[in-house]
Amino acid sequence: MPSNPFDAFFELPGESNERKEQPEPETPSPPLEDRTVFPEDGKESLDEILEKNAAFEQQAASLSKLLSQTKAVDHEPVAFAGNTLVQYLIEIRDPHDQQSMRGEKAYHQLLENKFRAIIVPMLELAKLHSEIANQFNEDVDEHYYSVEKTDREVKSDKELALDGLLFQRKLLGNAARDLGILTQALEVCEVRLKKYIDAGGDDNISSAEQALIAKSRSYLTSGLEHHFDYGLFSLNLLDEAALTFRFFTKQTLSQYIQRLESAFRNRKQ
Description:
8 helices; mainly alpha; single chain
């Protein structure tokens, strides 16, 4: 039936059949320059991740050497260090005691310098790690497909990408551990400084100066100075086990990424 019922009254004999036999006009193809073409130099997401992993490892080389050179473990406080009551009841020698106010201030400054030397490159690597983890979580799953690689090659690349993420997690965890040790050493050093408050002579320090030293240190070791909650990268026993046995599912990765986001959230860049 014609779309307009009055068309039939104005048609010549046979005209209706001719119309039905006429083919529908084809939609013209868009000019070649208007078509969307995948860029020839475009990289697949998994390849980008592998390149970023390589960039991370290159930058991480200097931090890993720095962690060896700073020897944070040498500054780890002994048990009960800083607890004057326990030291009074039990004779405990603190190997880090500098035996003077000037020595303690110099030692405190040394610990701060080591702390800053670690946290600055750690922050840059943590940002790159967060970027890689997010891209892996969003783009790479069991349905990931490559137009250039076989399924076996894709599987191998996935394993390499995952190995890279696990390595990054371990390195950042080691750095966070060393920052934790230096933080404890700084706090105990401040306790030792209290012995020299109003002591007189060359070893005299005012309570105001000692309090200011502790306050400035707290601003540093809390991560506020660098706008970075480095403590979120600390490894507990479960984290260590997960890294050792590669317990890395999509769900645990998503949960981990939420923690990563909070390391930089509401912090000025």
